[in-house]
Amino acid sequence: MKIKEVLRSRGRGVSFEFFPPKQPGSEVFFINVVKELARYDPLYVSVTYGAGGSTRDRTRKALLSIKKAADLNVMSHLTCIGATAESITSILDDYRANGIDNILALRGDAPRDMRDFDISRGEFRYARDLVEFIRKHDDGYFSIGVAAYPEKHPEAPSLEKDIEHLKMKVDAGADFAITQMFFDNAYYYDFMDRALKHAIDIPILPGIMPITDFNRIKEFCSFCNASIPESLEKKMLPVLDSPDGIKKTGIEHVGGQCEDLLRNGVKYLHFYTLNRADAVNEILKPLKDLLK
Ligand code: FAD
Q1: 58 lines ligand 1 (CB under 6 A)
Q2: CA-51 nearest atom, ligand 1
Q3: Given 30, 113, 122, 223, which residue has the most CB atoms within 10 angstroms?
Q4: Hey, which residues are catalytic here?
Q5: Contact 267, 13 (CB under 8 A)
Q6: Looking at domain 3-287, does it have CATH number 3.40.50.2000?
């Protein structure tokens, strides 16, 4: 089912993002995690797409194996820099033939092992170009999501410019957006106010990152311009030598964020699962009633 219809028909709900399994033999573990999280009756589940199309086949395989194993709405992430119109058309045709009707349309980043990759060359420059391209060719078949950045995308010159660029993606035909992770809800609420001022009226799902490994999260944050609140740094200080202490503190923090979002009328939460169910389970357990 198309996500735009799911969001129209469902009052509240969660969605889960996975990356395609890499190691031989990890497919079984992956599908078991998907099945375990399926008990939350997710709005949809999505599978990421590696920089420059590096996971094209694995992303496709993961999506098809989810469709085979569980009755879930699926969405493929799809990046466009370095891609050609021909390669994107062939992916879209294949998705259509396989009943994959939701795409998260992204620009993507230069692959880390290609230092001289020139982002400005090529047939697609921005995610908006991909949204436009899909809309020109799809007769409304796909529901299209895009990325949004409460603390602004690292390359954007200002919050204002970044939200103008989001508006362009909406005008090109995006049905919904998912945010980059954030650890202070004030960024999300402020972002939603600014989106409203720019007449952005599509659903914008907050991206929720469970914290279980604080160093890894800090590394992610440094790439993607998400900040760690001082209060969280302070809470982490006394437990930094204890993986269990970090996990407990991280889950308390992110669980508190989710509770606050739901109590303030946010209807949907999009979880970056990192292909693990345990932290998501712990965050969602106490929120059962709020998600009804
Ligand atoms: P865009 O919307 O094109 O924006 C990129 C930059 O260009 C921004 O700074 C924007 O302000 C600027 N910009 C846009 N339009 C214009 C214009 N007309 N003129 C000037 N500047 C402009 N990456 C992956 O490789 N695979 C994934 O599966 C993946 N999944 C993601 C899921 C989510 C929910 C999010 C939030 C991000 C994901 N990413 C993924 C990361 C994403 O690819 C990067 O953040 C990338 O740097 C930007 O992609 P975008 O689609 O937001 O790009």
Answers
A1: no
A2: 25
A3: 30
A4: 17
A5: yes
A6: no
